[in-house]
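Our example copied in:
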Amino acid sequence: MGTRLRDFWEAARSSFWFLPAVLTVAAVGLSFATVAIDRATAPGSHVFGWTYRGGPDGARGVLGTIAGSMIAVAGVVFSTTMVALSLASSQLGPRLLRNFIRDRGNQFVLGTFVATFVYCLLVLRTVNGTEGDVFVPEVGVTAGVALALASVGVFIYFLHHAAVSIQASTVVARVGDELTAAIDDLYPGGVGDGAEPGEVPAAGVPQASVTVETEEAGYVLRVDADALVRTAAERDLVVHLAHPLGRFVRPGDALMRVASPAGGPDVETRAALRAAVVVGPTRTGHRDIEFALRQLTEVAVRALSPGVNDPFTAVECVNRLGEAFVRLAGRAFPSPYRLGPDGRLRVVAPVHAFPDLLAGAVEPIRHHARGSPQVLAALIEASVAVSANASRLADRDAVARLIAQVVRAAEALPEPDDQARLKALAQAADRAIRDADSTHRSQT
């Protein structure tokens, strides 16, 4: 349940409605509070010398003007913003629109405008100009004016924030920060007790297995490992997940294979196992490290397309990917084997290997960067940094293969000087990789 609540909280915080809804509810509470203060004071006493002192008609005019202007400004500003984001998505990729929706600055601006509008409406309904029963919420009107002035400041902030947030360098930096946060969250990761292949107990692992199919189409977004291990332990099962996070499945596809000495799982057990694997329509980078990496890859590939031709943005993406793989190279990847409370093997989950992640993120960039010596040089430089931090031989071999591929791609460059420079960089990188390999071997 904790995992589900965490996912719900993450989805709510990332939505475009949550923060505006919170600010609107706060505005409702503020309107009741200020009106209660006004009703608790004697009419016309002006307890606070700085509050509004006009009559009912003036109060209606002030609150009505503020409310109308707020909703009009909110509509115009955000319709204009969506046009700008549509233009930006054509160059940077439509999947990055999700990052703009998650932007707290945009959510706060919308929430401020809507909250001020709602506040003024609720205070406006309490203004009474009937003879003998005149009520002017002096504190309420004054607070409305203060909110309007604050909204002007928020509007100025929004103009600056919108202009900065659609710049390519800002987008790349934001995606890179989210990728770094995902790596820190997932690696090292895992739930329960992990085990290495040689440590997996052979007892209780039946050969025969039954396939549990998925009932809906979509991407594997999350695996509730707590629930999966618990269900497998309670029913004496060994569950082999068929797909890693981020894979697309269709109705009827194998979701997992379940082995049990007592025979196949019953209907209730199948439902519990399916519930532990969440399938959704769109991928997210919250737990899907492959998707988080490929967001930067998509920006780089689009920047290298003939219609955009922006190698500098591609170099920024390569630098951010290099930073991410430096972190990954120094982290322990989770074991695919999960043991139950009894110490027996309960779940076998496919995990992403470092060489596969590196190839999936970098190969599209290398392919499209054949005519760009700047990007090829950035790939070599990033590879050296990754190899220096790699503690596993397979990871260093993957980096060496990448450098060799970049050298072959450099042979297609029309300028011999560019070819010679990249080959010199590659030779220096090869020496650095050999030195790092010797250092790691001596330490182990």
Remarks:
- The two ends are 42 Å apart (CA to CA).
